[in-house]
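Practice problem 4.
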């Protein structure tokens, strides 16, 4: 497919070389269109050598080929990385002073912006308004990552990892709809750890791969994503705001805080059912005798709490108890759609059906785990149980495919 890689004038322009390599090595034809300012960071010969195509920032070069119209109209995807505050402002207001902004005006394909700028620029009301305008017009504007910026500054504004931008672009190129545009979603991922002492903990085998796939695919479908990650060693998905937690109590606090403004909550994290009843302040030493038994206490059931809060809110607002239609972003009834996950080792569907009713969620993704299945693998298969509907079988495939199947069902319920 034909990809236009727009590069605007920020220090993160050098990272676009990695994004370009990922596109070309996966067989895409890439035309790099930098701004004049971007060429001060990375020169035209570099872009030409890496892409195998000519590079220009001007509409006056090769005028007989009408590049300011042809490039955008012939593209299957336009991605701008980095997208500076200046570039976002020009795109939002329809300015066309160079080849890149002309290309954006003539593009009829999906457009992805990966912003990178200082925190103050990203949070400025003008930038926020420009981002909102672009999103309303159907563009995907990823939220920047949080991290080290130019100089000693740290905060939101860092360019997302090029490999993660690439993954979002692949989902867009596969023709997924922007049916989550304007929606706020919360996804939990990973596995909680419950401290026994400063060294040891109770945990589980969840890697977070499925939750991260859900976050990544939601961003590619236009959603504003908050990812609550429990002990996950993966790059942050492009476009997601990541909140890191360790224990079930911390995950509960983060999910409930984020869910108040959410349209959808997806509880993909493997939350420990139990925690040690007492946490030792010092490492427990091995003795010659039998070890002391570890007493366990129940952890909060976050999925059930979300369902109960929505039921109580819907009842209090006059809507039918447990009705997804009674909920909405920021409303007292909570998220419109709640999705749970159930990792089972036996009696998979029977346990799943009981859990769906008990937790009061709308969808429950049930899969069998153990013996190399689900945890830590790139593939997954599942049955999605639907409240008031027929189960949906998702065959074994990449975890992103299961994620898209879940979002298909979520989008249908939101509609």
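Answer key:
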């Amino acid at each position: 497919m034909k990809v236009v890689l727009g590069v605007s004038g920020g220090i993160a322009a050098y990272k676009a070389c990695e994004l370009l390599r990922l596109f070309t090595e996966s067989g895409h034809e890439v035309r790099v269109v930098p701004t004049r300012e971007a060429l001060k960071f990375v020169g035209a010969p570099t872009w030409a050598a890496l892409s195998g195509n000519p590079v220009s920032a001007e509409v006056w070069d090769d005028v007989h080929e009408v590049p300011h119209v042809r490039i955008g109209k012939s593209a299957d995807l336009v991605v701008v990385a980095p997208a500076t505050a200046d570039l976002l402002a020009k795109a939002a207001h329809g300015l066309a002073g160079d080849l890149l902004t002309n290309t954006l005006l003539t593009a009829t394909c999906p457009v992805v912006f990966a912003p990178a700028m200082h925190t103050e620029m990203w949070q400025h009301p003008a930038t926020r308004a420009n981002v909102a305008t672009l999103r309303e017009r159907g563009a995907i504007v990823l939220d920047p990552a949080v991290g080290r910026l130019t100089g000693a500054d740290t905060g939101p504004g860092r360019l997302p990892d090029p490999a993660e931008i690439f993954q979002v672009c692949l989902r867009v190129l596969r023709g997924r709809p922007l049916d989550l545009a304007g929606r706020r979603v919360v996804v939990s991922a990973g596995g909680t750890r419950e401290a026994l002492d400063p060294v040891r903990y109770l945990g589980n085998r969840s890697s977070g791969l499925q939750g991260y796939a859900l976050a990544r695919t939601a961003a590619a479908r236009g959603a504003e994503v908050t990812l609550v990650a429990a002990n996950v060693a993966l790059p942050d998905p492009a476009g997601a705001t990541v909140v890191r937690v360790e224990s079930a109590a911390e995950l509960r606090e983060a999910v409930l805080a984020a869910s108040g403004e959410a349209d959808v909550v997806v509880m993909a994290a493997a939350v420990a059912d139990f925690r040690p009843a007492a946490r030792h302040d010092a490492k427990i030493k091995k003795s010659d005798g039998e070890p002391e038994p570890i007493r366990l206490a129940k952890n909060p059931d976050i999925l059930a709490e979300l369902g109960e809060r929505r039921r109580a809110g819907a009842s209090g607002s006059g809507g039918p108890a447990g009705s997804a239609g009674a909920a909405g972003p920021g409303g007292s009834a909570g998220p419109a759609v709640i999705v749970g996950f159930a990792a089972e080792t036996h009696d998979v569907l029977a346990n799943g059906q009981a859990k769906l009713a008990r937790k009061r969620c709308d969808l429950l993704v049930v899969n069998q785990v153990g013996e190399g299945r689900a945890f830590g693998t790139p593939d997954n298969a599942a049955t999605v149980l639907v409240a008031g509907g027929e189960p949906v079988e998702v065959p074994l495939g990449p975890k992103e495919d299961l994620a898209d199947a879940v979002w298909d069902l979520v989008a249908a319920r939101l509609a």
